[in-house]
Structures are given as C-alpha cells and as structure tokens.
Amino acid sequence: MKSYGHLFIDGHWVAPVRHGRFDTIDPSNEEVIASVSAATAEDIDIAVNAARKAFDEGPWPRMRGAERAAVLRRIGKGIRERLQELAEIEVRDNGKPLAEALWDLGDAAGCFEYYAGLAEKLDEHAETPIALSDDRFSSVARKEPVGVAGAIIPWNFPMLMAAWKVAPALAAGCTMVLKPSELTPLTALELAGIAANADLPPGVLNVVTGFGHDAGAPLSEHPGIDKLAFTGSVPTGSRIMQAAARDIKNVSLELGGKSPFIVFDDSDIDAAVEWIMFGIFWNQGEVCSATSRVLVQRGIHDRLLDRLKEEARRITIGNGLKNGVLLGPLVSKGQYDKVREAVERGVSEGARLVTGGGRPAHLDKGYFMEPVVFADVPADSWIWNEEIFGPVVCIRAFDEEAEAVRSANDSRFGLAAAVMSRDLARCERVARALRAGIVWINCSQPTFTEAPWGGYKQSGIGRELGEWGLNNYLETKQITRYDSDTPWGWYIK
Ligand code: NAI
Ligand code: MG
Predict the structure, then answer these.
(1) Counted domains in the chain
(2) Domain encompassing residue 427
(3) What residues are annotated to the active site?
(4) Which positions fall inside the Aldehyde dehydrogenase domain (predicted)?
(5) Same domain for 414 and 340?
(6) CA 249–ligand 1 middle distance (angstroms)
(7) Considering just the CA atoms, what is the radius of gyration of the chain in Å?
(8) Are residues 276 and 146 in the same domain?
(9) Closest C-alpha residue for ligand 1 atom 26
(10) Under DSSP, is residue 457 helix (H, G, I), strand (E, B) or coil?
(11) Within a domain: residue 422?
(12) Ligand 1 atom showing the smallest separation from residue 387 Cα
C-alpha cells in the first residue's frame, strides 16, 4: 500500500518536527497497513499558524461563495472518482463492510456538493436587513466565517466525519486544522491530497495525524484557534470544552449516546427486527446514534426476541472486503476488550444473554465478535445505561406508552431515539415526547445531509449538517448606521 508518511501543512507534505511515527492496523487480520506521522504540539503550532495566516491574509475567506463552491464541488468529484479505492482503504483501516464504506464515501462526496450549494447561497443571503424600532438607524445582520477551526474526529466513520466538518467550514470561508483518530488516519490524509488537487489554497485545510494527548489536546488548547468542532466520547468532549473555556473558543460537540428504540405491539415483527438490527449492528454498532436500548411492548416481546435471535445468528461475519459480509471486526484491540468486558458485565448484572459475544469459529485472527442480544436487562444496570459502542443490543419489555417514554428518556444522553407502530398518531406523539436530537419513526439510522444532527443533554452541543452545520462555522455581525441629519445631541447641544 502507498506511503502515508507525512503531515499536510500549508499545502505541503511535511515530516513531523520530532519525527514520531505510529502504525495503523487492519482490525480484520491485526496486520500493519501503514506507518503514519505522530504530530506533537510543535506540529500543531505550525499547522495552526498556517491556517491562521490563510485566514487573516489569504484569499479563501475573501472569495465569493460561488468560487469556494467550485472548489468544494471539485473535492466532491475527487472523492467520487476514487470511490472504490477510498472505500477499500476505509475498510482496511476501520474494519467496516465494503458496502457500508461505499455508502459513507458517497455521502462524504455528497456533503461537499451540498455545502457547495450553501456557499453559493451565502453570496445572496450573507446580509439580512433588520427592522429597527428607531428609524434614524438602519441595520444589517451579516454572516462571516468564524475564523480558524480545529476539528477532532473519531474512528467510526473516518471520511464521513471529516466531510461533516470540513465541508461546512470551507463553505463558510473558514480555514482549518483537522486531526483524525489515531486508529483510522488514512482517508483524512487522502482527503488532504484530493483538496490540494482541487486547488484549495495552501493553509486552508491542514491535516495533522497523531494521538489525542499529544496532538488533539494541543490543538484544542491553541490560542490561534477560534472554533473547535469535536465528535467522540463524552470524557474527551468534556476535556475539549474545558480547553475551550480558557480563552472562550466557540465549541460544538457531538458525543455519545444510549439511544432508545420503542417498539409497540402492533408493529410488523420482521420490520421491527430489521430496523432493530440496522440500528445496532450496522458499522459493528460503533455508531454514536446506535439504538442500543430497545423497549418492546409485552404483547410481541417473546416472538420478536425469537426472530431477532434467529436473524442475529445468521449475520455473515468476516473481513469487510469479502462479498456478502455484513459485520466486520471491531476497530481495535482496545475496543474489542471494552465490548467484551461490557458483555461479561451484563451477564454478571443479571441480564439474559440470548445470543452472541463469542469469537466466530471460522476466524482466528482479528477483533471479531458475534452480535450480542441481551434481554431482561435491569434498568439500573451498567449495560442499560452506558455506551458500549459495539454490536450489543439491550432489550426490556414494557406495558404502557407513558412507561416506555419515561424509560426512554431516563438517560443522561439524548442523541437519537426511534419509535415503531402502525398507529402514526401514536408515533408522532411519542416522537415529540422523546428528549433527543434525532427521532426516527418506523426506521432507525437513515441520515440526511440536509437535516440537523446533534444531541440533547450529554450527547452534545450544537447541530451539524444542513444549514445548522453551516451556521456552526459562521459568526453574526451587526452593522448599524446612523442615517439621520439631526445631530445626536447628548453632549453637544
Ligand atoms: P475519543 O473521544 O477519546 O477519541 C476521539 C478523538 O479525540 C480522536 O481523534 C482522539 O485522538 C481525540 N482525543 C483523545 N483525547 C483527546 C484529548 N485529550 N484532547 C483532544 N483530543 C483528544 O474516543 P476513543 O478513545 O477513540 O473511543 C472511546 C469511546 O468513545 C468508544 O468506546 C465510544 O464509546 C466513544 N466514541 C464515541 C464516538 C461518537 O461518535 N460519539 C466516536 C468514537 C468513540
Ligand atoms: Mg486502523
């Protein structure tokens, strides 16, 4: 595989100041895929200064939106032209099935194309007149880029999470330093190359690979950063917010979840099983919005559980590059151990292990786990309340709608939720009662670039995607003019 040795700073591929390196691993066979640069605070400083200079003096924030849109469209095209190759890199780095990686990469390209459209609209809509109560004055509200953005992203959707931040930031006219996860750094480096080929000016997008403590933390603390955008775990999000608090950086956070799925007993059992499985097993359950807590109404609970057990056992597990595989390995040894421990904890907490948790017999290498179904999960157990981030679904029975809603909302998280019933009025009512940023009715997980994405409670601050995602990277300036010929007359009468 090709070389990924360098950081991308100010339009150049450069070695890190301290020459640190780390290996990135293919989780399906535990083999090293590539050696990657490990940045430290010195490299972050150089990268932020490059982004700062590109923002303060360079063309990017001063261009018309339509000109930026042309570059964004070329980036989208650059991704599409190499879709298959990039998807295969993503599979090797992350483990996910190829069909899902192709989906992610198509969505990443679509995200650049969508924000190209919003960049064009900014040319007409950047300034909105404000009706003032005093007609001696006129005023406009003007949208301007927030400045230099620092983006820190996770390993579960490497290229897509990069796109969700890079596309709106560039559309807004920001410059940026992007730090991908140390577990999946490769497609972010590819994105840097694609952006350079699309004639993005130097310093506008800098990609710095490295570890959280050595590279992520100095990025979050750097005084040259105006805005931090983070996706990942709650503890790291809290650290980033504390770093931002020191010099009042603008911050948006997309954190974890323990998202509920309420299934009423008038639901079609096969449809319910399909969406429950999609909600927790796609991407190996390593999904922030995974519907990991399922509340099933008592009337269909046992039948649904039988079907779910049967289907979960049928899932084809293996290397994501293999045809027909629907469940790849977990991303790393660390994540595998964490999920294994959670399964053991669930058993010791008294949950009923219906199926899964073992290593598939035909796979002796790689971080593979058979998909796990837990039933009768105690409401006060660790596995019912904490994010596992693996293919582990926890199920409880309920009797009444109000009880299900109460139980669904009884969480410190509030990223997503789902409800299923043939009674649409009931679905709409429950959707409005759920305390979550995203609610799916009669489905779980489908995500659209046009619609807002983000969490209530400890699942985050702010919204990505859609126009909300663009606003993340915009400041609002008031420009107010005194239009009257009459002197103000306060001091000088
Ligand atoms: P993490 O939240 O620690 O890592 C996410 C990103 O933050 C990575 O780029 C990492 O290098 C960076 N980072 C780590 N420490 C940092 C620090 N002190 N300052 C600045 N940046 C830092 O997540 P990790 O350790 O990879 O996974 C642990 C758990 O987090 C998972 O088991 C899962 O429960 C949760 N998670 C949630 C995600 C989501 O989409 N909500 C994504 C990834 C993980
Ligand atoms: Mg990897």
Answers:
(1) 2
(2) 260-441
(3) 254
(4) 13-479
(5) yes
(6) 20
(7) 24
(8) no
(9) 154
(10) strand
(11) yes
(12) 34
pLDDT at position 2, please?
61
Domain assignment present for residue 450? The answer is no
pLDDT tens digits, one per residue of 84-96: 999 999 999 999 9
Ligand approaching nearest to the C-alpha of 28: 2
Measure the CA–CA gap between 249 and 243, rounded to whole angstroms. Answer: 8
Closest ligand to the CA of 185: 2
Residues of the chain under the 70 pLDDT cut: 1-3
Nearest-atom number in ligand 1 for the CA of 256 is 41
| Residue partners of 146: CB distance under 8 A and separation at least 6 | 172, 174, 226, 227, 250, 473, 474, 475
For residues 268 and 248, membership in a common domain is answered with no
Q: Which of 24, 37, 40, 152 to mutate to test the pocket of ligand 1 (most atoms within 8 A of CB)?
A: 152
Ligand 1, atom 15: closest residue by C-alpha: 212
Residue 33, Cβ density class (10 Å: 0-12 exposed, 13-18 middle, ≥19 buried)? middle
- Same domain assignment for residues 249 and 333: no
- Cβ-based neighbour number of residue 180 at 10 Å: 29
Indicate whether 186 and 275 sit together in one domain: no
Q: Is residue 407 part of a domain?
A: yes
- CA distance between the termini of the chain: 79
For position 5, what pLDDT does the model report?
Answer: 85
Whole-structure pTM value: 0.98
Q: Residues 269, 300: contact at Cβ < 8 Å?
A: yes
Buried b / exposed e over 203-228, threshold 16 CB at 10 Å, is bbbbbbbbbbebbbbbbbbbebbbbb
Question: Which residue matches tokens 């994501």?
Answer: 320
Report whether 31 contacts 367 (CB < 8 A).
no
pLDDT in tens, 50-78: 999 999 999 999 999 999 999 999 999 99
